[in-house]
Amino acid sequence: MKRSIYVLALAFVLAGIVHILIILLIPNYAAKDAWTKLERVAGLWEFSIVAEPGGRNDTLPLVDPAFGTAACRYDLTEAPLLVSADGQLPFWSIAIFDRQGRNIYSFNDRTAIERQLSLLVVNPVQMAQIRKNPPPDTDKAVMVETDTSQGFVLIRALQEDRSWFPTVRRFLTTAKCERYLKYAAPEPTS
Predict the structure, then answer these.
(1) Contact (CB, 8 A) for 122 and 143
(2) Is 45 exposed, middle or buried (0-12, 13-18, 19+ CB in 10 A)?
């Protein structure tokens, strides 16, 4: 009986120590999410190369070394997001994530319109405005509607061999992550 009480008391002490350690480690791990890491390397509405093909990657974990990766953070409360890039690559893909890093949507060059990267991310109000008066350049863009206001986009470009490095780098550095201001914004009601 005494032994059972001793083991139970020891288990409570050990559980308390583990609980305190976890509480002390939370601030350290809270600053390691993708949004915070990307915030350090680039501002809103601009792409930043976060991984070179075959190079070291300190910004985002688990990036395939055969791919170059660029990231852009956005805020749909300011404007819709327009992502575009030009170039012929063996393969590229793009993924949209919310601020917590959950994937919202993704596609690649095989499923894109004419294999060109043109993406428009909007919230429901912006989508209603675009549908009401569609700009002519939206017919070739993949349009994604989301309820999340902040997030980030990752473009991955495949480097089949070293000869593709300049092309991949040019594709990622010339990619545009910009506010889409061509639609008629709703007038504020008084």
Answers:
(1) yes
(2) middle
d(CA 119, CA 23): 41
Count how many Cα atoms sit within 13 Å of the Cα of residue 33 in the half-sphere of its side chain.
Answer: 14
Question: Would the CA dihedral through 71, 75, 78, 83 be positive or negative?
Answer: positive
Q: Could you tell me if 113 and 142 are in contact, meaning their C-beta atoms sit under 8 angstroms apart?
A: yes
CA nearest neighbour of 48 among 190, 152, 184: 152
For CA atoms 130, 133, 135, 139, give the dihedral sign: positive
Token couple for 186: 């709703």
Which pTM was predicted? 0.76
pLDDT tens for 52-105 read: 877 766 666 667 888 999 999 999 999 999 999 988 899 999 999 999 889 999
SS3 state of residue 69? strand
Q: Please give the single-letter amino acid code of residue 163.
A: S
Which residues neighbour 180 within 8 Å (Cβ) at sequence distance 6 or greater? 79, 80, 81, 82, 120, 122
| Tokens 């990231």, residue located | 71
Pairing of the two strands 67-75 and 103-108: unpaired
Q: Contact, 52 vs 97, CB < 8 A?
A: no
